[in-house]
Amino acid sequence: TWKWVVGPMFLYLCERLVRFWRSQQKVVITKVVIHPFKTIELQMMKKGFKMEVGQYIFVKCPAVSKLEWHPFTLTSAPEEDYFSIHVRIVGDWTEGLFNACGCDKQEFQEAWKLPKIAVDGPFGTASEDVFSYETVMLVGAGIGVTPFASVLKSVWYKYCHDATNLKLKKIYFYWLCRDTHAFEWFADLLQSLEAQMQERNNAEFLSYNIYLTGWDETQATHFVVHHEEEKDVITGLKQKTLYGRPNWENEFKTIAGRHPGSRIGVFLCGPEGLADTLNKQSISNSEADPRGVHFIFNKENF
């Protein structure tokens, strides 16, 4: 038995040593931003830190717990001079981090008073392949929308600085959530991208649809009354919020009709049930002819 145990145990010990070494590297918190609904954004810097879009890191805050590591998706773009995560306050550890950063106080918090943070990573995900396609479908469900903050920011930086060499030409973005208020920081990002795309007369580059899946009769009535207004009353975007769930078969057929003969990347960050649905639609809407349209499905789960 020991011959089978020694190898994996050696690799495990090596991984723990690497993580311990990484945890000793200095991480500087440059800014803490408080967003609505008890969500905080930590902007950090670390010597030698390099990231790609959609990656994630493990974070430890010794002031809260000396042993606990928690994974968080990076919401910054590689082009920015810092890396950031968004933390929703939903448990004891996140509550402790919230208080340690001084977010429970009204006065301005000095940088030297911020807690020490240990970071391990970044680690890769399927989202890194976004720039390998000319057309992509990005589907985020609930908290699964966070990887696409990094993707959309990076796309915008690349588009502004060297649009001619950017292979990616069209993004179809779908955001499924029960309550957009929980992710108002992401709606702000979409508003900024929407305004900038219109300034450059290329509003067609990014097509997005926001679906509220946890709607009730009161919300539906409010939606009908304000549907004709220029901007959506919930998100402040020109694209109106939709209620219920998408008809994925229609969405895939429509996109396939618009991009014949293309390889279309489908990227999901969400639950397994939705992954099964999108995988089946990707297969059924791909043509047998190598010159036809093909949907390539990629997923990651929280």
TrEMBL record:
Gene Ontology cellular component terms for the protein in this record: monoatomic ion channel complex; NADPH oxidase complex
Topology in the lipid bilayer: Multi-pass membrane protein
InterPro entries linked: Cyt_b245_heavy_chain (IPR000778), FAD-bd_8 (IPR013112), FAD-bd_FR_type (IPR017927), Fe_red_NAD-bd_6 (IPR013121), FNR_nucleotide-bd (IPR039261), RBOH/FRE (IPR050369), Riboflavin_synthase-like_b-brl (IPR017938)
Pfam families, alphabetized: FAD_binding_8 (PF08022), NAD_binding_6 (PF08030)
Cofactor(s) the protein requires to work: FAD
Location of this chain's protein in the cell: Cell membrane
GO biological process: defense response; monoatomic ion transmembrane transport; superoxide anion generation
Catalytic activity: NADPH + 2 O2 = 2 superoxide + NADP(+) + H(+)
Residues in FAD-binding FR-type domain copies: 19-129
Keywords attached to this entry: Cell membrane, Electron transport, FAD, Flavoprotein, Glycoprotein, Heme, Ion channel, Ion transport, Iron, Isopeptide bond, Membrane, Metal-binding, NADP, Oxidoreductase, Phosphoprotein, Transmembrane, Transmembrane helix, Transport, Ubl conjugation, Voltage-gated channel
Transferase in keyword set: no
UniProt GO molecular function: metal ion binding; superoxide-generating NAD(P)H oxidase activity
Biological role: Catalytic subunit of the phagocyte NADPH oxidase complex that mediates the transfer of electrons from cytosolic NADPH to O2 to produce the superoxide anion (O2(-)). In the activated complex, electrons are first transferred from NADPH to flavin adenine dinucleotide (FAD) and subsequently transferred via two heme molecules to molecular oxygen, producing superoxide through an outer-sphere reaction.
Descriptive protein name: NADPH oxidase 2
Organism: Erythrocercus mccallii
